[in-house]
Amino acid sequence: MNGLAERAIPFGERARVRFRAEHVIIALVAAAAVYLALVPLGFLAWRTFFDGGSFSLDAVRDAYDTFGLSELAANSLVFATASTALGVALGTALAYIVVRTDAPWKPFLFAVALVPIAVPGVLYTIAWIFLASPRTGTLNALLEPLFGPETFNVFSLGGMVLVEALRLVPLVFLLMYAGFRSLDPALEESALVGGARTRSVLRRVTLPVVLPALSAAVLVAAIRALEAFEVPALLGIPAGVWVFTSRIWRAVGEYPSNLAAAGAYALPLLLLTGIGVLVHGWITRRGRRFETVTGKGFRPRSIPLGRWRWPVLGLVIVYFVVSFVLPMLALVYVSTLFYYAPVSTESLSRGTFENYSAVLTDSLVLEGLKNSVLLSAVTATVVMLVMAVCAWLVLRTRLPGRRLLDHVTFVPIAVPGLVLGVALLFVYLRAPIPVYGTLWILLIAYVTIAMPYGMRYASVSMSQIARELEESAAVSGAGWFQSFRRVLLPLLAPGLLAGWVYILVISLRELSSSLMLYSPGNEVLPVVVWERFESGAFPEVATLGVLMTVVLVILVAGAHRLSTRIGVRAA
Amino acid sequence: MLNVSNLAKTYPGSKHNGAVVAVDDVSFEVPEGTLFTLLGPSGCGKTTALRCVAGLEQPDGGEIAVAGRLLFSSERGICLPANARGLGMVFQSYAIWPHMNVFDNVAFPLAVAPRRQRRSKPQIKEHVERALALVRLDGLSDRPATDLSGGQQQRLALARALVSEPPLLLLDEPLSNLDAKLREEMRFELKRLQHEVGITTVFVTHDQAEALVLSDAIAVMQRGRMEQVGSPREIYQQPASRFVADFIGAANLIEGRVEQRAADGLYTVEAPAGALLAAFPAELAAGTGVTVVVRPEHVLVRPADPSAANGWRGIVSAQAFLGDSVEHVIQVGELELRARGSPALAVPPGAEVSLSFADGSCLLLPVQS
Fold first, then answer.
1. At B79, phi and psi to the nearest 5?
2. Chain B: nearest CA to A186, how far in angstroms?
3. CA nearest neighbour of A259 among A50, A34, A518
4. Distance from CA of A479 to the nearest CA of B (A)
5. What is this model's ipTM?
6. Mutating which of B83, B94, B153, B160 best tests the A interface, going by the most A Cβ atoms within 10 A?
7. N or C: which end of chain A has fewer CB atoms below 10 A?
8. How far is it, in rounded angstroms, from Cα A199 to Cα A221?
9. What pLDDT, in 10s, does the model give residues B212-263?
10. A417-430 vs A2-49: helix axis angle to the nearest 10?
11. Domains along chain B with CATH numbers
């Protein structure tokens, strides 16, 4: 027995060596996540306050001298609050109609609510400028005989709120759709059996149970609105309505660019979004008490609309026309012009498709397309693989600090793309790592932005895989790599693929961080759109917009099918 | 063959709960070719002990050796990871990989073996087919694993655990997911397999009937400790504690006091409801507080006999017909007794009955202080 026991020791040692090799990968992955999420923010704070080598508030004072903090904060909050209120109201109503009523054409309604998410923000905003610019907007031109000139002015706080709210609706819809779906009808039925009337069931059972999902939706929407860049920059700056993001943009864009001021504008914004994310986390954790998702598919109780069935459908169609059909028609219309002109019989009769062949042979566009596709595909692949390992660490090990890793990968959700761009400039303009001026810095930004979503997809799908499947691989003699590659990855594949497509989509439309970090020669597609718009090449912009939207709609539809199959709630 | 000594495992407490002692100084030995069962209620530490042997949990202390090869020793600082232990295991959920077909599932342990020891493709095929034939799944190689029925998945898991011819097979409640009829079938199937292969096996279950049918030896566990280790017959007929008596089969527990020694190893016990004779192998002083264990099948019921002056009498409070037997619940003063007998002797509730106990069937347990 003793002799045999001696023989066992080398076994143990060899096993320990193998253990170390996989620890290197795990440590690298965790370190990369922490580095990407935290280092830029650290630099941002440091460079804002310590630019001259010692602590100073000069940058902050300079920044807010020209423009008061209180007014900036007030504008940002009013803009965010109003668009959130409108967006949540519309999104929740849509979700309620689709999930809980017997409205006709439900699959169509579902698509209607979801499709606008595919349009990149910059194109959506530009489409609204084509529609409702005070003097040259198509809607204004059409309505002039009826209401006189300049019926709508999109360059106003009201215009900003409307466009941003319409951007938020699909997101709110998805969150509330999940919220209403996960409501166990037995909760309501037992109240009904208990003698309650429909209205009091709604108020005393449905509402309290859905409340966590609703508050989460409100916070997600508010954070998005605070982080929004396209709408405040394109609609707010001409109107003189400044918010944090547009100020950051201006501070970096002016000559010489004032990075310290940009940092000073970014910090209060980060504070607001950070608080939003913390409260959101607190609510969702508390909300688990109410979680009634048991893995069984509920068939939610449908509330009969009676004679309101068709009017409700009509209202949804009106929403769809305003939120999607009109902006898309505007893009299609402008894409057929040689030079921009409001719609008229004459402009329509001169329509042409030459822009399409011009755009598709434009070398800058093709270069941008190549960069965009390359960056997005690499981002999606890297993020999903790294986050699969992170999710494994968080869910499957008892490593100290695994909870922290979970939180760290979520940090970028609170960082607006613009702020991340500024922070990365702080880091890499002076750092000895030569990534500035290359695609690498864009990759770093994209990976950071996509990290929280990748983590969500990876951890949701991993939590659905029984631990015993991995344990049986270990008992069968498989090492960490073998069981990860041969058991875990194949089982995770549908979830990872869904996350991959989602990240591909958000990377393809990512504008604000790209604007901060690109340099001539490595423009991505949204940057090309932005530049062409700035230089007034509207028909080309519209053409690009139509093409991008078509591709993204297809991708979003694919992503949605995949994610519902694995049960990730998109956010 | 398998030697486990002084095994200990404590789960550290969290904010909400204190530390949990899952396995508390457990030692046992499983001889070559036998089936050893860890039996106990849920949370007794039986699964944790098995997972420590498998290498899925790291014990805090103790030693585990298989065929003389040390797998774990806190003293020597040895802890082989699960994938270096070379054991076979069947999980409660079977843990069949849904993305592989039947063949690939079974071939996995051979395919991931270290390169130097890896068999050639044709050899792997031969081994897999032999393992599948053993569990009577031959011919299903190409089926997706998820197409199999519950019972077939069970066999598949067994084939996978056996394919690399491990020295030790670990079974973690493998029958608990099957329906009652299939479970009974699989019990005998398992027994047949274990005899055919002659593999040393550790079996974890909370089902005492399963344990009695399958085991060469049973260890009854409670709160991380071993209450008793013995053959099924010993455990059933001579439970060492009140817990074991109560957990294995049904038992009537009658509190009383030793009156006097009646014969060699036989004592008269005075209980509130009457006196009875009970066996105990050692010396007991008169007046010692004891618990008498009587199995329901040893409680004999007959219609009340007014001529018998003394003896046990009670009122039937409930009766249940079980098909092959009938069970009576009888109220004797404060005491409630269960009796099981032939359906021919059914007595309606409310009737008065006389009770007696089969000779030598009453067992004495000194009350633990």
1. -150, 100
2. 28
3. A50
4. 6
5. 0.81
6. B83
7. N
8. 28
9. 989 999 999 999 999 999 999 999 988 888 899 888 888 899 988 888 888 8
10. 100
11. 2-244 (3.40.50.300), 250-366 (2.40.50.140)
